[in-house]
Amino acid sequence: MHGPGLLALIGGDEFHPGNEPHDELLAASARGRGRAYIVATAAARSHPQAAVRHAADWFRQFDLDVTELRAYSRAEAHVPATAEAASQAAFIYITGGDPGLVATVLRGTPVGDAIIAAWRNGAVLAGSSAGAMVLCEHVLVRRQFPGSTERRPVAGLAVVPNSAVLPHHNTFGSRWFPSARGALPEATLIGVDERTCALWDTRAWRCLGSGCVTVYHRAEASGRFVSGSEVDGIPEFSGE
Fold this sequence. Notes:
Layout: E1 7-10, H1 20-30, E2 36-39, H2 48-60, E3 66-68, H3 80-87, E4 91-94, H4 99-106, H5 110-120, E5 124-128, H6 130-134, E6 138-142, E7 151-155, E8 163-166, H7 177-183, E9 188-192, E10 196-200, E11 205-209, E12 212-217, E13 220-226, E14 230-231
Parallel strand pairs: 1-5, 2-3, 2-4, 4-5, 8-9
Antiparallel strand pairs: 1-10, 6-7, 9-12, 10-11, 11-14, 12-13
Helix pairs in contact: 3-5
């Protein structure tokens, strides 16, 4: 039994220039250790195959071959062979898309459980935008009326406890803060800019990439962290 692997919460705009600092590190940590997978569940209602192709092209520059771990529905997330593949993975990256969909499909399923088990046993686990959101205890989804910036929480995979990610924080995610804080008054809110990563490297959290990580406790931002700096205030988790 190994300890947990690298854990990456990426703010969005994945697989584009600006993501090299964290993606190169994630790929290097997994290279040669086993299979590497892209999970495009969050994009299942749009263009999941395009997301998988884009990811494969992107990670090729880092000498990492990635293939799809398919789980577009809860039925697919219960397929034993898929769960077994996930449990043996060295690298799992959950793409962006619909945060409510990825939470609904993966939460409480054999594939979702196997993804977490693989990370606890040393695999790299990364998520971007909706993929980062689902790795927290709370996932912020849109309230049921068009054009709203209001968000409500649903349960995520809870790899990072008592927390929720505000992705795309430098473009629109910061506007989610008032409703997120109202719904989750005690949770830590983690604002992550696009092409930026809050990375757990087995010792501490740190910021990598083009922008900043902003951590909110209660009413205000308690810290804004630039690339290369350690990030304080994200809840600790157990890899056991």
